[in-house]
Amino acid sequence: xxxxxxTIDNVAAGDRLPELQHDVTAxxxxxxxxxxxxxxxxxxxRDFAQxxxxxxxxxLNTPNQAAWFERYLTDWSGxxxxxxxxTFRMTGPVFPGDTMVLxxxxxxxxxxxxxxxxxxxxxxxxxxxxxxxRASASIALPVGPDDNPWGRKGDRWRP
Amino acid sequence: xTQDETESQASATAGGDELPAxxxxxxxxxxxxxxxxxxxxxxxIWTTCATAENGNPLFWDDDAASEITDGPIAPPTxxxxxxxxxxxxxxxxxxxxxxxxxxxxxKEQLDLPEAIMTEDVLxxxxxxxxxxxLKSSQILKSISDPKTTRxxxxxxxxxxxxxxxxxxxxxxxxxxxxxGYRRDAK
Lengths: 159, 186
What we know:
- The complex is a heterodimer.
- By secondary structure, chain A is of the alpha+beta class.
- In chain A, about 20% of the residues lie in helices and about 35% in strands.
- Chain A has a 5-stranded antiparallel beta sheet with strand order 1-3-4-5-2.
- In chain A, strand 4 (about 115-125) and strand 5 (about 130-140) form a beta hairpin.
- By secondary structure, chain B is an alpha+beta fold.
- Chain B has helices at about 5-15, 20-25, 40-50, 55-60, 60-70, 100-110; strands spanning about 30-35, 115-125, 135-145, 145-150, 155-165, 170-180.
- In chain B, strands 1, 2, 3, 4, 5 and 6 form a 6-stranded antiparallel beta sheet that branches.
- In chain B, strand 4 and strand 5 (about 155-165) form a beta hairpin.
- The radius of gyration of chain B is 20 Å and the shape is elongated.
- Chain B starts with a helix and ends with a strand.
- Chains A and B meet through helix 1, helix 3 and strand 2 of A and helix 3, helix 5 and strand 2 of B.
């Protein structure tokens, strides 16, 4: 876990984030569904997932995947990193027994018109090399050690 | 109108290019304004962080949260969690409260029995804090012409879910793209 804060001057397009690997279990799926108050049966009932969804097992829900992506981004940025926008495209389910790997790279780094520094990243969640979810995120980073994106409000925050 | 006539009309609608006038009239209209059934609370925040093994000190260390975010906040990506209805409550059946009601309305109105979500864009504004009571509303932004994908034939639709806090400050917008479809005959 990173508790130091990345500043924008240390970030450039092409930077790669360290990979994060996690072995998904039924507990990962069910606890994630419970934490996000998602009671739909395909996230806790294997019979339902197989018979109604035609898939092999229960699978990670979207809010839980979002939680994993957020953790991945802020492990890299430190706590002053403030997520502004994230886009997901789900292409395949993630099941218990899968080892999911999150990887990502910076595609842009810039300072906007109101002085807020941003990094844009492309992130992938893969299982055995197959992409299951693609995400694109913009995260605000401090411009220097005294800056804090969380202090921005109103017109000074343009995600 | 008989049931057969209703089914026939719905089927023609889903297969044709024209959308029914009552569905078209809903584009851009704010619907389903709802208030959260419970305040934002730290139990769910900690469970979410435990699930994703998220050690961000903003969620575990009150001194860090005080210094950086002026007190505890919720992980931004938990936006939808706070408007999820209880699975059961007095006076209603278990599991009867559907999230994203416009999505289910469109499936029914356009007679498209299957649906998936294809894209989700979350944009975050004011931080969400323990004790906040959020409210949400849904706006149908667009519906596509009929499309055929490997899943079947149907339409894509885009729905904005807007979240505000008890002070009417915007805390986030969740833009979801759904594809409602009918499996093509083999």
